[in-house]
Amino acid sequence: MIPSYSSRLFLDQMGGLELQPDGSRRRKWSWLDTETHTHAPPVQPLCFALNKYIGIRVLSQDHISMTFLHYNRSCRFNVGVKLRV
């Protein structure tokens, strides 16, 4: 059985924010600050399923992958980009 997640994920050019289902903050990080954030990307990836066919994995700003599953086949796309300010 695939677990269901009700958290919300917001990504922008400066960082990201993951919220609990009740709206409280779970994790917050900055893409530019890799020293102080040990429990959020870019060190520890976020992995969650949108449904039983689509999954998201956030490793860093330019390594965000979306995976589509169908029976024994899968397809992975890298949808992340590195923004230069």
Task: Summarize this entry quickly.
The chain has 85 residues and is mainly β.
Task: Throw out a few tags for this protein.
85 residues, mainly beta, 4-stranded antiparallel beta sheet, 7 strands, flat
Count the strands?
A: 7
Largest sheet: 4 strands, antiparallel
Distance between the termini: 42 Å
Order of neighbouring strands in the sheet with most strands: 4-5-6-7
Number of separate structural domains: 1
* Strand-pairing-aware structural class: mainly beta
Rg for CA atoms: 14 Å
Mean pLDDT: 76
Helix content: under 10%
Query: What is the approximate shape?
Result: flat
SSE pattern: EEEEEEE
Low-confidence stretches: none
**Percent of residues in β-strands:** over 45%
Number of helices: 0
Describe the secondary structure blueprint for this structure:
Layout: E1 8-11, E2 15-19, E3 25-30, E4 46-49, E5 54-60, E6 63-70, E7 73-78
Antiparallel strand pairs: 1-2, 2-3, 4-5, 5-6, 6-7
How would you describe the overall organization of this protein?
The chain is mainly beta. It contains no helices and 7 strands. The strands form 2 sheets. A 4-stranded antiparallel sheet has the order 4-5-6-7, with no helix packed on it. Strands 1-2-3 form a 3-stranded antiparallel sheet, with no helix packed on it. A hairpin with a 5-residue loop joins strand 2 and strand 3. The termini are far apart. The model has no long low-confidence stretch (mean pLDDT 76).
